[in-house]
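Fold this complex.
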Amino acid sequence: MDYVPVIGLEIHTQLRTHSKLFCGCSTTFGAPPNQHTCPVCLGLPGALPVLNRRAVELAVKAALALGCTVHETSIFARKNYFYPDLPKGYQISQYDRPLATDGALEFESRGESKRVGIIRVHLEEDAGKSLHEGLPDSDRTTALDFNRSGVPLIEIVSHPDVRSAADAAEYFSRMRAILVATGVTDGNMEEGSLRCDANISVRPGDVQELGVKTEIKNINSFRNVQRALEFEIGRQIARLESGDRVTHETRLFDPGTGRTVSMRSKEEAHDYRYFPEPDLPPLMITTDWIDGLRRVLPELPDARRRRFVAQYAIPDYDAGVLTQSSALATFFEETAAASANPKAASNWIMGEVTRKMNELGLSIEDVPLTPGALAGLIRLVDSGTISGPTAKEVFEKMYTAGRAADEIVASEGLARIDDEGAVQTAVTKVLEANADAVKQYRAGKKQTYGFLVGQVIKSMGGKANPALVNSIMRRELDKGAA
Ligand SMILES: [Zn+2]
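Structure:
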């Protein structure tokens, strides 16, 4: 039987603020445990929260970028549950009156256009962190670090519109690109700035009714989203096929084994006893403020991709790769402008530059090569000063030595040889040294021509102007034949 997966995603992202959502403590990653804490984020009795305006601004930007309606009034709510890393006994979130609702994310996945509806975007604070391993007494105790407690997050909840594990990974990756491009988050997945929960059920293709879903928590890479869902889809189908039922529960993905394991039975909203947060007034935002933020939204990755195709006449595939990060897209635009050859700029960036980045584990921001320097290299090729193979050699040297292309070409004598006399000398030498091949050519064996030209180019270190070599070679060979 064919089964259809039905997937909805909840993405939590850390907002790019200096301080926490309801207090002035720093959000800097990597501080010693419990350094960034105060009575508010430790949940001490009587401490009162004060909302961070910058966090609201970033949350509104995210909502606008996703086409949501931002509400002028939204309400903070207490989500009550006990956990050792949640000292207040509740998390301040938003519930029935979220910041924004009804958006969508449209993207291409494997050549097809997809649209995933966004139900809501709401603000909430993060909890602290329980450490169960890594300390000398970890076999006996759990350590608590409250540095993350109160860090501002938004949660973006999608409709269950995703139909495959690959599309889920693509959605997550596009979402990250939008949130990074708008400056909402730094998108650093290793530091936990972005994580994804996936709700997944399967149903037989001919049945409309939804199957029982499970939730996979806290997945922190695109690849693991795909792996976790592929495993879970297979596991649910196997259960249904063997006549078992799927249990409504929360599961964890183990990247080591590639499997999901049961964590706890799934809570329902009523388990949390949500009620309006009495320590915070309703969040009121004026339409003027929202409109102001809408006007300063940068160009979003998908729009930029379409513009690249139209403006630079590069293939859609190239545009897709180049707009994966805004830094890479900007690097391309600057190289294209300075070289006046967008296609060559795209080829170099997607080819040699990316190869180097992968080889050295660098991001485009850390590449020791400016768009201007790369454009200089492209201009040398376009003007015929150097050949394609020489350009690759120069590129390597630019990278390691940090010198400009024309400097390297001049100091190392790499420029193409257009000197007719020099080429003439080389041709004469090759013809003398290969008298047999010349004889064969003149007797009608034309294949030897390529061999002779190759010998000349080789003897000149690959720098001879090929057109010049050809014309002199033909002239010399014809001379002898006449
Ligand atoms: Zn604090």
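The two ends are 79 Å apart (CA to CA).
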